């Protein structure tokens, strides 16, 4: 299956914590970073997810925010450091490619945000992704 989701990073499930309807799935990405995905319990069962399962973490570029450094006091658990490799700006929006250990992420953010944060190729950033915005594929 081909997907329009540009952000696809391989990893391995390290833990599954089940609730009544939802579950949190901790994944160690191939680059060594840990992320958490909040998905339905039904999806965990259908995908057969368990510790040791190989997965791909999928995130739409519109769900990736960027910060110029780590952010404390924030509910967003997934903070992945990286380096900007490309910034493509249009009339209102920009696509910012970020090299992270084990892969690449693209963030679709406003052109104003790029200017305000002074984002450019070579800049260090932290990609912020809510756990509810990470999907998993096997």
Task: Describe the protein in words.
- Strand 6 (78-89) and strand 7 (93-100) form a beta hairpin.
- Helices cover 10% and strands 53% of the residues.
- It contains 2 helices and 10 strands.
- The model has no long low-confidence stretch (mean pLDDT 97).
- The protein is mainly β and 138 residues long.
- It is elongated and about 45 Å long.
- The strands form 2 sheets. A 5-stranded antiparallel sheet has the order 3-2-1-4-10. A 5-stranded antiparallel sheet has the order 5-9-6-7-8.
- The longest helix has 7 residues, at 41-47.
- The N and C termini lie close together (12 Å).
- It has helices spanning 41-47, 111-117; strands at residues 7-18, 22-29, 34-40, 54-59, 65-67, 78-89, 93-100, 103-110, 124-129, 135-137.
The portion of residues forming beta strands comes to over 45%
Total strands: 10
Give the low-pLDDT segments. none
Principal-axes geometry comes out as: elongated
Termini gap: 12 Å
Secondary-structure element order, N to C:
EEEHEEEEEHEE
Largest sheet: 5 strands, antiparallel
Rg result: 15 Å
The helix/strand class is mainly beta
Helical amount: 10-25%
The mean pLDDT is 97
Tally the helices.
Answer: 2
Give the spatial strand order of the biggest sheet. 3-2-1-4-10
């Amino acid at each position: 299956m081909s997907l329009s989701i540009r952000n696809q990073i391989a990893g391995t499930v390290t833990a599954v914590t089940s609730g009544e309807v939802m579950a949190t799935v901790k994944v160690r990405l191939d680059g060594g970073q840990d992320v958490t995905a909040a998905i339905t319990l039904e999806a965990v069962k259908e995908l057969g997810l368990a510790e040791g399962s190989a997965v791909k973490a999928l995130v739409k570029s519109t769900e990736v925010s960027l910060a110029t450094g780590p952010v404390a006091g924030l509910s967003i658990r997934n903070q992945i450091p990286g380096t900007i490799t490309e910034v493509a700006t249009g009339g209102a929006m920009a696509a910012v490619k970020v090299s992270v250990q084990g892969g690449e992420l693209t963030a679709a953010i406003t052109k104003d945000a790029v200017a305000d944060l002074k984002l450019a190729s070579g800049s260090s950033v932290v990609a912020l992704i809510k756990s509810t915005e990470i999907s998993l594929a096997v």
